[in-house]
Design a protein that fits this description.
- The complex is a heterodimer of chains A (332) and B (252).
- With 332 residues, chain A is mainly α.
- Chain A has one domain: ABC transporter involved in vitamin B12 uptake, BtuC (Orthogonal Bundle), CATH 1.10.3470.10.
- Helices cover 78% and strands 0% of the residues of chain A.
- In chain A, α2 packs across α3, α5 packs antiparallel against α6 and α12 packs across α14.
- The model of chain B has no long low-confidence stretch (mean pLDDT 89).
- Classes of the chains: A mainly alpha (332), B alpha/beta (252).
Chain lengths: 332, 252
C-alpha cells in the first residue's frame, strides 16, 4: 500500500514539473526554479509560471482528484463501479445551471463569483440526482439508470447549447470553451475556493470511510452493524454532488474520470477499503487530469483540445474494460 | 437457560399496509435454537427482519429482555443481535479476513481501526469455524459453503447474544449443512440464542429446541420437534396429502 502511494506521488510530482515546463513556450527547469525562488518578478517566464501554468495545474490536480472521489462515492452509493457524475448526468445538469446563471447575471450586469458558480452547479447536480434517485426507486436495473443518466446528460447539454447560442454577450466565447470542459482560464481565486470546498468535502468523505466499508457488504448488514443508512446515503449524495459541482463550476464537464480512476486505483491497490481508496482516488484523479491536461494543451499546440476529449480517449476504454470483466465474471 | 431473551408480543409483520403474519405470541429462551418452518413465501424472512429491527412491527412489539427494539439504541442493538442473510453483494478485492473484520464494526472507533482485542476476536472466530486458512483469499473466489462460513464468522465476532439466520443452509452441500449445524449447536451451548428459517425439516428436527410453524399468515404450531413432527402437522403446513418420501425420511 505504501509502495502504491509512493509510486502515485512520484508520478504526480513528475507531472507537476512537466506541466510547468511544457507548453507553447518551453521553459527549462533551471529557469522555473529561478522564476519561483529567484527575485526577477517581472520576467515573462515568471509571469507564465506563476500566473498561467501553476493556477492551471493546481486546478487540474484539485478538480481531477475531486472528480475521482465523487465517482467513488457514487459507486459506493449504487453498489456499482459504472456509476459516476458524468454518466449519471449530474455533471451536465450542473453545467446547465452554471451556464444559465452566468448568462442571466451577465445580462443584468452582475458578476457571479466562485461561490455563486459552485452553488449554481450544486443545485443543478442535486436536481439531476433527485431525478436519478427517483428512477432508482422505481427500477432495479442499473443499466436503465445509466441510460437515464446519459439521456439527462444529452438533454442538459442541448439546452446549454441553445442558451449559449442565443446569449448575446461577447463573454460567451469563454462560456463556449468552458461548456466543453477546460482547465484554462482558471484564476488563482477560483483555485483557492475550489481547494477550500474540495478539502472540506474530502475530509468529510474520509470520516465516512468506516460506514462506507460496512456498506460494501450490503445495506442490510451495514444497518445491522449500526450504520444509520438513511443519513449515510444523504451524506454520500451531498458530498459527491459538492465535489463534482466544484469541478463543473470551474472546468465544465469532465468525462469518465469519476469511473476510470477509482477502477484503476482498485486494481493498483488491490483493495476496496475506503480508508485507502479515498486518498488513492484523489491522488489518482489529480494524476489523471494533469496528464490529460498536458496532452490537451501540448499535443496540437498552440491549438488546444478540450479536456473531455482527452479524458474520454483515456477513460472510456477503462469503462469497456469494467464491462467486459464483469461479463466474464458472471460466466465464471 | 430459562431466561426469556426475545419476546414477540402480539406481533404482526409485513410491508406497509400488507400484513404477512399476524398476532404472533412467542417467548424465546436464552441459548435456545429456534427454527421457523413454513412454505416459500410464508413470511419467514419478513418475520426475521422484524425481529432484528430491519422492519418495523406493523402491530405489537419485539422485546429484547423486556425492552421494545424501538427503544434500544442502534449501536447497542448491533452488539446484541447479529445476522446472516441470503443477500449477495459484490465483494471485489475484499478478502475473507476483511469481511470478518467488519463484524467488529460496533466495537471499533474512529475510521474503523482494529484494536488488539478486535484482532483476537477475528482470529478466534476464524479458528472456531476452522477457516483461518481462507483468511487472505478473495471472498468472491470461494465456494458458497465457504462464503457462508465466512459470513457466519463475521456474525460471531460481532459477539451477539442473538444470531438470526435466514435460510443458512440453502446452496450448501450436505457436508457444509452438517458443519453449520454443528456450529449452531456449539453457539447455543455458549449461550447464544439462534433463530433461523430452515427448509430442511430433518435438520430442524435434529437441531431445534423450539420449532415454529408458519402457515396462512399465522403461527399455527410451536413446540419441541417431537411434538411438531407428527404426520398431520407437517402435512398441514406444507399442504401435502401424500408425502410418502418425506414421511419415510422423517419417521423412518
Amino acid at each position: 500500500m505504501i509502495a502504491g502511494y509512493a509510486v502515485l506521488l512520484s508520478f504526480l510530482f513528475l507531472l507537476i514539473i512537466l506541466n510547468i515546463c511544457i507548453g507553447s513556450v518551453s521553459i527549462p527547469l533551471k529557469e522555473v526554479a529561478g522564476a519561483l525562488f529567484g527575485g526577477s518578478s517581472d520576467s515573462t517566464v515568471y509571469h507564465i509560471v506563476r500566473d498561467i501554468r501553476i493556477p492551471r495545474l493546481s486546478a487540474a490536480a484539485i478538480l481531477g482528484g475531486a472528480l475521482a472521489v465523487s465517482g467513488l462515492l457514487l459507486q459506493t452509493f449504487f453498489h456499482n463501479p459504472i456509476a459516476g457524475p458524468y454518466v449519471l448526468g449530474v455533471s451536465s445538469a450542473a453545467k446547465l445551471f452554471v451556464a444559465l446563471t452566468l448568462i442571466f447575471s451577465l445580462r443584468f450586469g452582475m458578476i457571479t463569483d466562485s461561490w455563486g458558480m459552485i452553488l449554481a452547479a450544486f443545485l443543478g447536480s442535486m436536481v439531476s440526482m433527485l431525478f436519478i434517485l427517483f428512477v432508482a426507486s422505481r427500477v432495479r436495473s442499473m443499466s436503465i439508470l445509466i441510460i437515464c443518466g446519459v439521456m439527462i446528460g444529452y438533454i442538459c447539454s442541448a439546452v446549454t447549447d441553445i442558451a449559449v447560442t442565443f446569449a448575446d454577450d461577447s463573454n460567451i466565447v469563454n462560456l463556449h470553451s468552458w461548456s466543453l470542459g477546460s482547465f484554462s482560464g482558471i484564476s488563482r481565486e477560483n483555485d483557492l475556493v475550489a481547494a477550500i470546498v474540495v478539502a472540506f468535502s474530502l475530509a468529510f468523505a474520509f470520516l465516512l470511510s468506516k460506514p462506507m466499508n460496512a456498506y460494501l457488504i450490503g445495506e442490510i448488514y451495514a444497518s445491522n452493524l449500526g450504520v444509520n443508512i438513511k443519513r449515510f446515503r444523504v451524506f454520500l449524495v451531498l458530498l459527491s454532488g459538492l465535489l463534482s459541482s466544484c469541478v463543473t463550476a470551474f472546468a465544465g464537464p469532465v468525462s469518465f474520470v469519476g469511473i476510470a480512476v477509482p477502477h484503476l486505483m482498485r486494481n493498483v491497490f488491490k483493495t476496496e477499503k475506503p480508508v485507502v481508496m479515498i486518498p488513492a482516488c484523489f491522488f489518482g484523479g489529480a494524476l489523471f487530469c494533469l496528464l490529460s491536461d498536458l496532452i490537451a494543451r501540448s499535443l496540437f499546440a498552440p491549438a488546444e483540445l478540450s479536456i473531455s476529449t482527452v479524458t474520454s480517449v483515456l477513460g472510456a476504454p477503462v469503462v469497456i474494460w469494467i464491462l467486459f470483466s464483469r461479463a466474464a465474471g458472471r460466466e465464471r | 437457560m430459562d431466561k426469556v431473551i426475545i419476546e414477540l408480543a402480539g406481533l404482526s409483520v409485513g410491508y406497509g399496509e400488507n400484513i404477512i403474519i399476524r398476532d404472533i405470541e412467542l417467548k424465546l429462551k436464552k441459548g435456545s435454537v429456534v427454527s421457523l418452518i413454513g412454505a416459500n413465501g410464508s413470511g419467514k424472512s419478513t418475520l426475521l427482519k422484524t425481529v432484528f429491527g430491519e422492519l418495523k412491527p406493523l402491530k405489537g412489539n419485539v422485546l429484547l429482555e423486556g425492552r421494545p427494539l424501538s427503544e434500544i439504541d442502534k449501536s447497542e442493538l448491533s452488539k446484541r443481535i447479529a445476522i446472516l442473510m441470503t443477500d449477495r453483494f459484490k465483494s471485489g478485492f475484499m478478502t475473507c479476513r476483511e469481511i470478518v473484520e467488519l463484524g467488529r464494526y460496533p466495537y471499533t472507533g474512529f475510521l474503523g481501526r482494529l484494536s488488539g482485542d478486535d484482532d483476537r476476536a477475528v482470529e478466534d472466530a476464524l479458528e472456531k469455524l476452522r477457516i483461518s486458512a481462507l483468511s487472505d483469499r478473495l471472498f468472491n473466489r470461494l465456494s458458497d459453503g465457504q462464503r457462508q462460513l465466512v459470513m457466519l464468522a463475521r456474525a460471531i465476532c460481532q459477539e451477539p447474544e442473538v444470531l438470526i439466520m435466514d435460510e443458512p443452509t440453502s446452496f450448501l452441500d450436505i457436508n457444509y449443512k452438517l458443519e453449520l449445524m454443528k456450529i449452531v449447536k456449539k453457539l447455543s451451548e455458549g449461550g447464544i440464542t439462534v433463530i433461523m428459517s430452515l427448509h430442511e425439516l430433518e435438520l430442524a428436527k435434529e437441531i431445534s429446541d423450539l420449532v415454529v410453524c408458519i402457515e396462512g399468515g399465522r403461527v399455527v404450531h410451536t413446540g419441541a420437534p417431537s411434538e411438531i413432527f407428527s404426520e398431520s402437522t407437517i402435512g398441514e403446513i406444507f399442504h401435502i396429502d401424500s408425502f410418502g418420501i418425506l414421511k419415510k425420511y422423517l419417521f423412518g
